[in-house]
Write the structure tokens for this entry.
Amino acid sequence: MESKIILPERDMPRQWYNALPDLPTPLAPPLEPGSGKPVTPDMLAPIFPQAVIEQEMSPEARIDIPEPVLDIYRLFRPTPLVRAHRLEKALGVKCKIFYKDESRSPAGSHKPNTAIPQAYYNAREGVKRLATETGAGQWGTALSFACKMFGLQCTVYMVKVSYNQKPYRRILINSYGAEVFPSPSDKTQTGRDILAKDPDCQGSLGLAISEAVEDAATHEDTKYALGSVLNHVVLHQTIVGLETEKQLAMAGEKPDFLVGCVGGGSNFGGLVLPFLPRKLSGEKIRFIAAEPKACPTLTRGQFRYDYGDVARLTPLLKMHTLGHAYMPAPIHAGGLRYHGDAPIVCNLAAEGIVEARSYFQNDCFEAARLFQATEGFLPAPETSHAIKAAIDVAREAEPGQNVVFLFSGHGLLDLASYDAYMQGNLVDFEHSQEDIDESLKACPTFD
Amino acid sequence: MESKIILPERDMPRQWYNALPDLPTPLAPPLEPGSGKPVTPDMLAPIFPQAVIEQEMSPEARIDIPEPVLDIYRLFRPTPLVRAHRLEKALGVKCKIFYKDESRSPAGSHKPNTAIPQAYYNAREGVKRLATETGAGQWGTALSFACKMFGLQCTVYMVKVSYNQKPYRRILINSYGAEVFPSPSDKTQTGRDILAKDPDCQGSLGLAISEAVEDAATHEDTKYALGSVLNHVVLHQTIVGLETEKQLAMAGEKPDFLVGCVGGGSNFGGLVLPFLPRKLSGEKIRFIAAEPKACPTLTRGQFRYDYGDVARLTPLLKMHTLGHAYMPAPIHAGGLRYHGDAPIVCNLAAEGIVEARSYFQNDCFEAARLFQATEGFLPAPETSHAIKAAIDVAREAEPGQNVVFLFSGHGLLDLASYDAYMQGNLVDFEHSQEDIDESLKACPTFD
């Protein structure tokens, strides 16, 4: 009874897949906040390197992965595709369940897939330091690791609630040589303004983004790196789906359901987008996105232009949003606490190509514990949403169908969350429609 | 530039290698503490299942791995053998460095290799609960995981200094359904006696063993499981070396140096023993054991009979020992804080077949950080000793030689140690000869 489908290193994909040219409805362009006009590449130059800006808008369906990036990928890639025999048995389902294990990277998640090329392109263009935000800490870990590999300095603004909940994450990021500040911090004007109004502010991903962007924009040798949402990030993550496609072919299987959790949408997009051409050409593959009920962007947000950050420093993106000032409840899946989602994923959700489901965190932890009790590994709280959705989908699936979900990260640095869950101390949050409507009022009207 | 040598799942070894019949000098038998006579199988029956007792004394060179054990092994095995290209380059060495990555298990270390069969054999023989000790927490995690897989209850006595240093370890063990007590505890007579004398006692592995053995011996439905030292434990760990041998053959390489850290000796024995027949038949392979200067069992201990635990409940084993009441300094590599070592490893060390080196913990953390900065992954403090030794050996090696070391576990639950190291707060310990001589006086005289 074989469990793991291992792609030989020599067969690791050497190109990423860019979904932009294949989208049935073209992606709405990012808009400049002041004028409402489409953003031009030169506007992004203060915060991103040239290669990344080109990728953000590229019309090419395949983009070469540079050799130095492949070298670092090879420290942990290709990652295994694993048949979850024991989970299937515990559920009593007749479908097959596979998980693509992205927890095997040094950072413990899929995030290095984009951190590595971003660090590489910046280093190649002479940048000395990268600034970024992090929610649960997965992205901060990934970027600090990638910066270490290419000799860059790294500054991480970490959402304060996670900074306090997860001291080990902070140490791990430090251990890769990065400096870490709780956000809101006194290091930026944005942070100082917020702290003046609310000294106890627990932060949000949108706010931390504002701080990191300001840091990059106000320092000559520094650029910004984002861990999700943008096209180039999703592009880099497609190595996950491209490997999965090859691995399923090796096993003589085809996917019926592809399942991932959605915070900003990059791990989900990375898994499903390489299968988009097949789906568009008629193959029956369902793309299932799982998100928290405490931050129900795809299931309850509006599809419209909004800012990516609280301070309105970023371009406007057309995406599902809960409003850029939305403060999600402090659930333990910190990486899913973002008001928006990747425009590419939202574009497909608006077309009905991506289906979204939302879950309470206690149900997700229960699913995570079942996974742990059967397959052995402890999932990250974010990943638990994908597991919950995969279990639901598996129960709905026909005998012989294949459910493939993305195991985006391990939970070894989220043990305080599990302790709280086991003690029965986790609260389930769901915002009222009034709250969400109120938050959406702050959105600009550029539609 | 390929990095990983992946053994296909179908080629995973289906037998363990038992070194007992191949030892140049037969192993001295374990002795019954009271009489000084060799231990008979029936004496071990109260604490071990029959299958384990048979393996402990088996004359067979190959022992079949049961199918249900293989099924659980397949959740994470075979593990990769990885070429450390970037570490080689940073060191400027001309030899090749490989590491066998046992951090990939659910428990994060090599320990499940024996936890799984031990849990299986106990469950098969109708045992309901296993009691054990744990130092740094790796073994407790592994046994609780294995018990979960086979439906057994699990009680873990965790050395108090580690219990307090590593709260996440305790939660992780709990998350696999086990109960965890800091040792010395008030759950056993041994623990209560110690606490009465020294309420602040920080514990030791030897003491925690006493508690777990007492628990098993005094409860009908409970048996004991040990994570290192004994022959059957080392036997189960030989899957590491057997896989490594196949992987090196796949790469067309042969090992010149095999390097591992030694706490009780099981990961080291598991790596090197399968190469013993080749070494004995004249092939030039050096077996290098790395241990802490704070607990220098092989480098400064005496090779003689001693108890395995503080309370003198265990049989006498002929091994290198610092004295069974030795209290090693509270270094962060908790898993290496044991006064003795596996008799098989000691037998070979006494013959000069195993060479031992000892290191200060700051030097080991420095080596670990170099590994992290080049290969990306954060090692456990125990593993850092193997890395330090491997680096030293690589610098001594001839061009073209191969250094293979065992990456026994990751450091993601040891981040407080790294924080202390980065802050410059780690102290290097070395006991005086007087201390060690004094400790050795307590050894029995059965030689």
